[in-house]
Design a protein that fits this description.
CATH class: Alpha Beta
CATH superfamily: RelE-like
Number of helices: 2
Number of domains: 1
Strand order of the largest sheet: 1-5-4-3-2
Length: about 80
């Protein structure tokens, strides 16, 4: 599965020093280790929004389109 992100997501991650953790999570998704980053569908499930864990505090919100995850926002999970 491929992961792409918006430019605003990259700047948000860089401001908070999360790029290394984000890249590690993306690598795990690309290798198919979905359970490791807790890739799940967000409630309500009919909305079609997925999320995965970057760190204990941050989650990446994304939309799945065929075999690609499109990250559109980083959420403070706390």
């Amino acid at each position: 599965m491929n992961v792409v992100q918006d430019k605003s997501v990259v700047s948000y991650l860089q401001e908070r020093g999360l790029m290394d953790q984000y890249r590690k999570a993306v690598t795990l998704i690309e290798k198919g280790y979905f359970a490791t980053v807790h890739l799940k569908k967000r409630q309500p499930k009919r909305a079609g929004i997925w999320y995965f864990r970057i760190s204990q505090k941050y989650r990446a919100l994304c939309i799945r389109h065929e075999n690609t995850l499109i990250v559109f926002e980083i959420d403070d999970h706390q």
